[in-house]
Amino acid sequence: MSDSLFTKIIQRKIPADFIHEDETCIVIRDIQPQAPVHLLVIPKKHIQRIADTKDEDVTILGHLLLVARQVALKEGLKENGFRVVINNGPHAGETVPHLHVHVLGGAPLANGWGSASHSH
Fold first, then answer.
1. Cα(103)–Cα(37) distance, rounded to whole angstroms?
2. Is 120 a catalytic residue?
3. Could you give the CA distance from residue 48 to residue 36 in angstroms, rounded to a whole number?
4. pLDDT at residue 119 greater than cutoff 80
5. What are 41-81's pLDDT values in tens digits?
6. Which residues contact 43 (CB under 8 A, 6 or more apart)?
């Protein structure tokens, strides 16, 4: 397993605000939120980025989206909406090389989220 920041969080070597955990993934609050609610859905299996997934990762990928939906609803984001984002590579704003899904909401979001100032 890689020693990415997220791997260390999964292993409890670095503290984080966990809001969900199951056998496949964790969900934490982003420490540099870009919206009032900014959650990260992170697979326990280290996959560097979405472009590095394999066909056999279909179950993990589907699970990440189902959990993203679940935590968004738990956070009360259904009525006004929320955004789900996966960055792939440095030009997309990825700063942690471990696949993760952003769930953002709680206020109107500007179009074009993902500029250089919005990272992970």
1. 8
2. no
3. 27
4. no
5. 999 999 999 999 999 999 999 999 999 999 999 999 999 99
6. 24, 25, 60, 63, 64, 99, 100
Output the six-digit token pair for 2.
């890689």
Residue ranges per structural domain of the chain: 5-105
pLDDT tens-place string over residues 86-113:
999 999 988 899 999 999 999 998 876 5
Sign of CA dihedral 109, 10, 5, 86: negative
Q: Look up residue 56 and give its two tokens.
A: 């056999």
Fold of 5-105: HIT family, subunit A (3.30.428)
Q: What pTM was computed for the model? A: 0.89
Find the helix or strand (DSSP H, E) in which 38 lies.
Answer: strand 37-43
Selected catalytic residue, list 38, 91, 98, 100 = 100
Place of tokens 């791997």: 7
For residue 21, which of 1, 5, 44 has the smallest C-alpha distance?
44
